[in-house]
Amino acid sequence: MVPRARRRRPLPAWLALCALLCQLQVTFQITPPCASERQYERFGRCCAKCEPGMYMSSKCTATSESICLPCGPDEYLDTWNEEDKCLLHKVCDTGKALVAVEPGNRTAQRRCACIAGYHWSEDCECCRRNAECAPGFGAQHPVQLNKDTMCTPCLVGYFSDTFSSTEKCKPWTNCTILGETEARHGTDKSDVVCSSPLPSTKLPNEPQIYLPSLIILLLFISVALVAVVIFGVYYRKKGKTLTANLWHWVNEACGRLGGNKEM
Ligand SMILES: *[C@@H]1O[C@H](CO)[C@@H](O)[C@H](O)[C@H]1NC(C)=O
Ligand SMILES: *[C@@H]1O[C@H](CO)[C@@H](O)[C@H](O)[C@H]1NC(C)=O
Q1: Does residue 84 have a pLDDT over 70?
Q2: pLDDT of residue 146
Q3: What Å distances lie between residue 260 and 54, 186, 249, 252, 253, CA to CA?
Q4: Which is the most buried residue in 31, 64, 73, 78, by most CB within 10 A?
C-alpha cells in the first residue's frame, strides 16, 4: 500500500521511467524462470544442468534434482548440459600424419595436429607436406606447427643454395675474418668464395711437400748408377777368371763322376 500512496504524489518523469524499467526487469526475471545457462526448466521449476565432464543420467522431477554422472574414459562434455551421454574423443590417426597436441580429458576435447613438416589443408581435409623454399629463398622462422612454410627471398648478404622447408637464408662467409680475400661475390643462391690473399705463401708450401721425395728418388737413382758401374768394372776384371775357375771345377767334377762310373 505504501508504493501506491507514493505513486499518487507528483513524480518527476525520470523517476517514473525508472520505476517502469524496474518493473519490467522484475517481470523479465519471472517470465523465463531459468535465466542462468546452468539451469533448465522442467515442471515449471528451474533445475541445475550438469557441469562439464558430467552427463545427465536423469532429469529432475517435481520433487528430485537432476542426476549427473561423470563421463567415461575417452569421453568428454565441455559445456553445462542436459545431454544423456558424453561425446567420444576423436582419434588422432598417425597413419594420416596426425598427432594429439592436447590429450583431452573429461571436460576438454582432444586436439589433433599434423606432425612436424606437415600442415592441415582444408581442401583435402588432410595433412599435406610443407612446401620447400627454392634456392634464393629461406623458410621464415620460427617454423609454426601445423602451418605451411612461408618462403621469403634472401636479403643482400644472405643466401640459400638448397630446396628446404625449414632452412633459413644463411649469411655469406666473411673472408676478412678468415684472413682471406673475396675471390667471388655472393648471390642470393651462392656463398662468397674466399681465397688466400698472397699466392706466394702457397707456392713454398708445395716444394716443402715434394722436396723430400725428390731427394730420395735422386739418391736412389745415384746409388743404382754407382752399383751398376762397380759391378761393370768388377765383371770386367774378375769376370773372365771367375768363369775360367767355374769351368775348371765343372770339368773336374764331371771327370770324377766319369771315373766313378768306369770303376
Ligand atoms: C582438461 O584439459 C584442459 C585443456 O587441455 C585443461 O585446461 C583442463 O585444466 C583439464 N582439466 C582437467 C581436470 O585436467
Ligand atoms: C667482416 O667482419 C668484419 C669484422 O667483424 C667487419 O668489419 C666487416 O664489415 C665484415 N665484412 C663483411 C663483408 O661482412
Answers
A1: yes
A2: 86
A3: 127, 97, 17, 12, 11
A4: 78
- The answer to whether the CB of 176 is under 6 A from ligand 2 is yes
Ligand 1 contacts CB of residue 140 (under 6 A): no
- The fold for domain 34-88 equals Tumor Necrosis Factor Receptor, subunit A; domain 2 (2.10.50)
237 C-alpha vs ligand 2 centroid, how far in Å?
78
Q: Which ligand is nearest to the CA of 176?
A: 2
Query: pTM of the predicted model, to two decimals?
Result: 0.52
Scan for cell 609454426, then name that residue. 144
User: Distance between CA 132 and CA 154 in Å, rounded?
Assistant: 14
| pLDDT of 14 higher than 60 | no
Q: What is the third-level CATH fold of 130-190?
A: Tumor Necrosis Factor Receptor, subunit A; domain 2 (2.10.50)
In the structure, what pLDDT confidence band is assigned to residue 66 with cuts at 50, 70 and 90? very high
